[in-house]
User: Fold these one by one.
Assistant:
Number 1:
Amino acid sequence: MEKKEVYILAIESSCDDTSAAVLQNDEVLSNIIANQEVHSKYGGVVPELASRAHQQNIVPVVQQAIEQAGITKQDLSAIAFTRGPGLMGSLLVGTSFAKSLALGLNIPLIDVNHMQAHILAHFIKEDDCKIPPFPFICLTISGGHTQIVKITNHFEMEVLGETIDDAVGEAYDKSAKILGLPYPGGPLVDKYAQQGNPKAFSFTQPKVGDLEFSFSGLKTQILYFIQKNVRENPDFIKENLVDICASIQYTIVEILMKKIKNAVKQTGIKNIAIAGGVSANSEIRKRLNEADKHWGWNTYIPKFQYTTDNAAMIGIAGYLKFLNNNYSDISIAAKARLKVTE
Ligand code: KG4
Ligand code: ZN
């Protein structure tokens, strides 16, 4: 009998989360994520430990995703996996696993670009979620990337501007580290920021091109500010944590909003999406929601579970490629550096 439904098993292992998802067409049936606690005490991801943890997690995570979806391996139409960008040792685990399973089941293999997938997560069908129309602008903000991308079709993307140094997620995580918070510190800075005064301390914004970002100067500024104040009062961080976090968050979100405004001005496009781990941030979500009312933008904010790394986003990208018969050869290799346009 001809198969009507498409079932994609997706695997994501680019950094420190092992994730597997099953999609039925553009709907998510399961999305299992195993976070790796092991890195928190090191203040950042330790690549060797990440690949070892992926190796341990991948089989149970995939098994759970299939079980929770209520299907069997024999129902699968294709296997999608993250080819890059990411940590090579981590990517290799997902890539090798996906290849072996696709070979074993004799079904197509589909390679997915992790950064495209963050953006394409907007095409996951959910009852209460609107899907952005083309063309739209996406602010892609994660631990490794900060870009303004123009999307004219699912796989037609153009980078209008990006960071010249650190990514915004890095700025969050490094600020958190300076404050003695565990990795990844972004969500914690966000949590404390919500209780603090955003105008308590002021930091200067970088001077770069209209659609460019720079966060390394801000990080140094925060470091010197904290060092100076701790010299004068050893309890400075403890006594002012929520205000420091709120002030850092305010500065970062001001920068992001300013850049989106510049992109709208330059392109005339008012359909605005955000994607990537930092799009989980409460303040950027709030400010974008307000922009709908204030400036007549149509904003698209991903569901919380599709912001940080997850396999559902790999699944939707895989599904869209599947519809175009865009399969990968079994000889395909993982690639640590991959542009969003590749
Ligand atoms: O997309 P992602 O999961 O991994 C990469 O592809 O990099 O992004 C992870 C980044 C980390 O830097 C993390 O601190 C940041 O996203 N992040 C946040 C929040 N949630 C995650 N940053 C600020 N506020 C948050 N709520
Ligand atoms: Zn990511």
Note: The pocket of KG4 (ligand 1) is lined by residues 15, 142-144, 169, 172-173, 184, 186-187, 190, 276-278, 280-281, 308-309 (CB under 6 Å).
Number 2:
Amino acid sequence: MTTQDIIRLEDTFQIPTYKKFPLALVRGEGRFVWDADGKRYLDFYGGHCVTLLGHCPQPVVKAVQEQVANLIFYSNVAYSPVRAHAARRLAEMAPKGLGHVFFCNSGTEANETALKLARKHTGKSGIVAMEGDFHGRTLGSLATTWTQKYRAPYADVLPETHFVPFGDIDALKAVFEQNDNIAAVLIEPIQSMAGITTAPDTYFQAMRTLCDEHGVVLIFDEVQTGVGRTGTFSIAESFGMTPDLITLAKSLGSGVPVGAVLVADAIADGVEYGDQGTTFGGGMLAMAAVTATLEMIQKEQLMARAPVIFEQIMDAVGAQVQAVRGKGCLIGLELDGPAAPVLTALREAGVLAGSSGEPNVIRLMPPLTTTDDEIMLFGNCFAEALRQATSEQAA
Ligand code: PLP
């Protein structure tokens, strides 16, 4: 089948909820994917910030292949060595004090779980979220997601959700002082979809203190930042503070669907049978992928690559951009014009990258395994794409 055949078939039978790249991918290896017509792309999009170790990392492929032949699935009604190992490895890599885990299947489920745990722990129901945040598409996560077009039809699901400007500690303080029913603050520490926006470390430290003073559970949505993408397992480690709950997904299984909530010991102590559950969460294939992913990150010391790659990309784009935002392998390139034509030109040149809520910002989510040569390749394609987009606009 050609790309065009596949596009026609998929569009005929899938409901049209997604805006897609006009290409059909059939293979991935390392930092590259290939489409149905044999064209190769350097993948700095990673299927929505998923492929932190590149495509089909060998240890993960091997672990999943072995597991699929042994036992594809059994639910949490029975114990499993592969789940036990994944839970231990994750708890060991988590920030100190977050030594318990709940496994689920996606980022939005991890956020739903965190919200439930916070409400149970505090006995309160109000949530504070940040303007610009994205937390997922299920109803609770949507009610805490800022973008009006996603949230508005479902905002009544969590009517006590208060939005405050990201980075404004006084606004958060004011909500705490005016409401005594706040269970949790949910925050995306680098707002990715919003355009790779973050705040100084002192903001997160002050947030920790405020939450402690008011008995509020602090939830970091690290669905994008987590698992070492920004240079530490949790970005909170680089801020010098620890949230009470951290949600993970995306990179955790190298593409095998999995989500997780890291849970502070004090919250875990109060959890009872029936508080949360999922059939597929903690399934064997996902757990094999999690352990192999985490082992590879540790064994190859890949987290140390994150700041290096950030610097290299900064050097590669140089003065062609207004600013380079973000941290580690979660990068925003701020252009002095619209990103869309540059993204199209990049794709034509064989590079996949992402747009964002800010029309001038390109998002790059390169794997931690990206080589120096691949960054040079990106740099050359970027310069060419920028030239092409600028000359097309001028014409
Ligand atoms: N939180 C953040 C920060 C995300 O970027 C996403 C997805 O893009 C989600 C939550 C939802 O994750 P999922 O699509 O796996 O449900």
Note: The domain at 302-395 is CATH 3.90.1150.10 (Aspartate Aminotransferase, domain 1).
Number 3:
Amino acid sequence: MIQKVSESEVSRAIIEGFTQDLLDHTSTDVIIVGSGPAGLTAAHYLAKQGIRTLIIERNIYAGGGFWQGGFLFPKTVVQAPGNEIIEELGIQMDEVKPGLYIADSFRVVSKLLSETAESGAKLLNSTYVDDVIFKDGRVTGVVVNWFPITQMPKFITCMDPIALEAKVVIDATGHDAFISTRAREILGLEKIDPTKRRHGGMNIDEAEEAVVAHTGETEIPGLVICGMAVATINGTPRMGPIFGGMLLSGKKAAEIVTNIIKGTIIVEK
Ligand code: 48H
């Protein structure tokens, strides 16, 4: 016999559950914009230490470009030592050749998502970051709105956003590098035409080293960058459908953010 419930009880459970999560994160430790491989890895390592972590994703689902390997084929390929991050999740990868590994993308992504959720990170999906909060020379949060409104006719989109504060914001927006681009624009560091600011051509080895090397705090205090956004901002090569650099970049971002948070005394709001 299936438990009987009323329609309004179901509605109430959803509304209360979601509202409580949102209230808990209006002022949080870390906001990660983008839930691709880099953002998710960062979220996983941060949340499992008890650091309050909110992931914001404009898509209805999390995972970004991690669901497909390349050419729409769902195979995840990583090179050492990126495989260690996946194997830490309990997934044994197949060895293609020494140091190069493969697994089904849906296995890898679903496990990373599940472990990240178990760590305590929260996901705000179908939500896009439209701007940053910029105060006293640092990024102190993000301005968000429902993503679906961007698809509506202009005359009904005059809906003001809301803002969420964080000690650190991570730009994990992939190729767009949206948060860093916007923050640099506010600072007047350069006039950016987003269509022109691109990564270089493909060179896997150079691209992967460069992404990890340049992952970290940006010139804008409070803003850390990881993943493909690093290549976009620095104009370094692209790596194509290999993900070791994305995972290692996300892990490095988490280590840097941990140091910032543990070394910073913030007055709780
Ligand atoms: C909310 C946003 C916003 C916004 C973007 O693209 P991703 O998978 O990013 P990474 O860096 O974790 O991984 C990059 C990888 O997937 C890739 O593209 C590679 C390796 N390319 C190599 C090559 O040569 O092309 O995920 C970014 C996520 C996406 O889910 C976006 O929807 C989301 O960020 N996002 N979410 N507000 N303003 N902008």
Note: Helices lie at 7-24, 37-47, 82-88, 105-119, 178-187, 204-214, 228-234, 244-263.
